[in-house]
Structures are given as structure tokens and as C-alpha cells.
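This follows on from our talk about sequence and fold. Go ahead and set the record down below:
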Amino acid sequence: MATQRILDFLATRRPSGPCLVVDLDVIEDNYKAFERALPSAKIYYAVKANPAPEILRMLAGLGSSFDTASVAEIEMALDAGASADRISYGNTIKKERDVARAFEMGIRLFAVDCVEEVEKIARAAPGSRVFCRVLADGEGAEWPLSRKFGCEPKMAVDVLRHAHKLGIEAYGVSFHVGSQQCDLDAWDKALADAKGVFEALEKEGIVLKLVNMGGGFPTRYLKDVPTAQAYGEAIFASLSRHFGNRLPETIIEPGRGMVGNAGVIKSEVVLISKKADNDNVRWVYLDIGKFGGLAETMDEAIRYPIATPHDGDETAPCILAGPTCDSADVMYEKTPYPLPLSLTIGDEVLIEGTGAYTTTYSAVAFNGFEPLRAYVI
């Protein structure tokens, strides 16, 4: 998965320490694939996946809109060249003063999932549009989302009714089927729930216009995943099944699916050891771990492909861990990772598919290790 451009960069620049290298050409290809897959949906790139200014500028130039989680991310999208009407404030948990600041900057599209959040927006961003996030079970996702965001569909009707009553526009419904979602049918039940909210409010004269279908589009790690086109066909079939000829405006919010396969982390083997003479499982310690950007190895949810200089040699299972003085800094132990027996201390390895949720999860100098450096080429 490391492109020739990434390999050439590493060979010529020889950066010391762990680092992420992202190939913009791959991201451009991914963006165009999403455009082809769902031509009627607006693409709102999830800035949290990787907010590198070079990525945001390129996507803004291609016509992307942006899903943001904070005032800082709104500022990043604006600085990249996006106009305020191409930015949504997609976090359902916002300070009222942040809503007011976003409103000052021209943002008029906000996510909510309760009447209390609606009331903040009515006070701080009068006349804005809101969409209510509905809970989805996330079954089939490798990184399921918790009940932290969203509400039951029946409550969504109450929330949007309350928005209408307070004079802000009840604009639509959103959901998220879980990150790294590999089930093509995952969107179907969520779209059925969205249609139910549309119908309930239409009976009261409140006409919703938008379905924000969220992210969840995967990147390839150790297993193949469906293509963007396959997702597009499945989602459009579900939209047609539930909404018939009255298709709503639609948004998708790819993050991982946009940038995940564009990035590779270069890392170094710091130590290889065993815990007992008769131990048949090696411990392999890298100079990057959970606190250096690989937080998604928590519970071994995301299993990254790892390329070594000895690929093709005989392998044996290893426990893979990071360099910090924290016992939680172990990536793969429940299911050990097969690595070549010829792997040695000082070898450089490439951790592939790491373009998303690595720099943003990297700790600030935990144990004195610097945050993950990144290069965008």
C-alpha cells in the first residue's frame, strides 16, 4: 500500500524517528471515486480524520465540503479556502459560545441530538438549520461508535419539532453506521429510520430536506473491503427503496475512507525479547505505539498491515508493543501478529493504511516522545 512516491520520499529524505507520509494523489483518487459512486450526494470530508492543511486545501479545490467538530476545525476549513456554506458543525456536543462563534463565521448548519442542544442554537445561532442525529447500532463495523451521540428516532421527531417551534429550521436527519463499516447493507436500516422521522414530521407540516448519511466508509487494512462504487450502489438502492421518487438532499462524510490508504508510518524496531527461556512468542517493541498515533489498536480493533525488509521469510507470532513506560501501550497481544523470524533490532518497518486518525491521536510529548511528525507529498 505504500506508493512509489512514499517509498522514494523515505529513501531520499531518510527522516529520523517515526513519521507519517501521506500521498495527496491517493486522496484525490479517493475523492473522485466517492464522487462517481454517489454523484447526487455532497461530500463533507470529516476533518478530524486528518486535518493537514495540504489535504484540506486540495479537497477544497476539488469542491469538497467539510464536516467539523470544533471551532478550530471550522477555522482550518475556512483557511483552506472553503466558504462557510460548505461547512457543517457536526459535533452534537458544543459550548454555546462556540455555537455563537461559528455563527459569527457564517456557519448555518449544525448537528443536534437533544432539545437542550437545539435551545443553545436557537439562542446563539438564530435562523440556522439543524439536523438531528439518530442512533445506529453499528453492527458490522470494526470501530463501532457508542451511544455517546444520537437519540432514538422517536425522540428525533420531538427534537426537530422543538427546533421548528423555536424558529430554527428543522432541516434533516443524520446517522453514522460505525467507522470501518464493511457491511454494504448497514445503511439500509438507518435510512428506514430516517424515513420514519421524515414521515412523522410531514404529518405536522414540517418538511425535512436532508439525510446526512455520515461516514463509515472503510480503508483496506489486512482484509479487502468493498469499493466506493459498491457502497454507492447499495446506498442508492436503499434510498430509492425508502424514499421512492422523493429523494432528499444527501450528504456523506468520509474520513477514514478518504485518507486512510494514503498514509504510511515509518517505524523502527527498538527491541525484540522474550519473557522466559521457554517463551515461544517474541515481544517486538517499535518506536511508535498507542500514544504515538496508533490509538485505534485499542482492543485490537484496527489491525494495520506491516511491511518489513524480511517479508517472504518464515514468520512466527509476536506481541507488538510501543516504546512508552505504560503497560497499556501494547498493540497486538490477544491475537499475536505474524512477523519474520529474521526481523532484527534496528530494522525499519512500514505501518500501512495509517493516513487517518494517527496524527490527531498522537499524544503531546507523553514520556518525552515528540508528537508524530507528518509529511504530505
